[in-house]
Each structure stands twice: as C-alpha cells, then as structure tokens.
Amino acid sequence: MIYQEAKGKASGDPFCCYYDDEFKEEADIELCVPTKGMVAGKKIVAKQLPKIRAISTMHVGTYETLNLAYKAVLDYAREHSLTSILPSREIYHKGPGLVFKGNPNKYVTEIVIPIEQEG
Prior knowledge:
Layout: H1 2-6, E1 15-18, E2 29-32, E3 53-60, H2 66-79, E4 88-94, E5 108-115
Antiparallel strand pairs: 1-2, 1-4, 3-5, 4-5
C-alpha cells in the first residue's frame, strides 16, 4: 500500500519509527519508506525527518530476536552515559519478500536509537 501511494518515488529500504519507550500491544508506530522528494497520497502523509545523532546496530536473524539487538544498543548507551530519545527506528534491509517468504534467519534489520545532542 505505502509503495503504491508513493507512486514510484520510493528510494530505499522501508523502516518504522517507534514512539513508545517500552513494548506495548497497541504501539505508536509510523510505517515509512524513503522517497525521492515529497509525495502526496490519500492514505499517506509525507514529511522530512529531522537529522539525528544516533547509535545503531545491525541484527541478522528473525524478528523474534530483535530484543537482543535493542538490549545491546541500550546497554552501550548506558555504559557510555548517552541518553536515548524517541522515536527509535528499525530499517528493514532484508526481510520477507512480497512473493517469497525468504529465510527468517537471514533477515537484516538495522536498529537505530537517537541520542541527545551534546552541549
């Protein structure tokens, strides 16, 4: 749906922005796709995300083990006295395809945690 609304202007891997700081059954999530320029659609809203300072890690494996990647990034932040802020992002570099499911053990997801700017 999101790619149809972007009308061929999609340019990059899909991602989600998460606005909750803990797991919730009904989460505040934005489903996103980078585009070449702003796009308009009946079922989407286009916006430019602000530049951020962040820490990140690449997770290879099933989505069920993403919590391990989050723990590693948040542990790093704590060890280096970095304050994380929202929204966090999951960038889906390799995941289930539209036609073939693919191998979940080979999914590649980047976890991006924004941190407060220094000074």
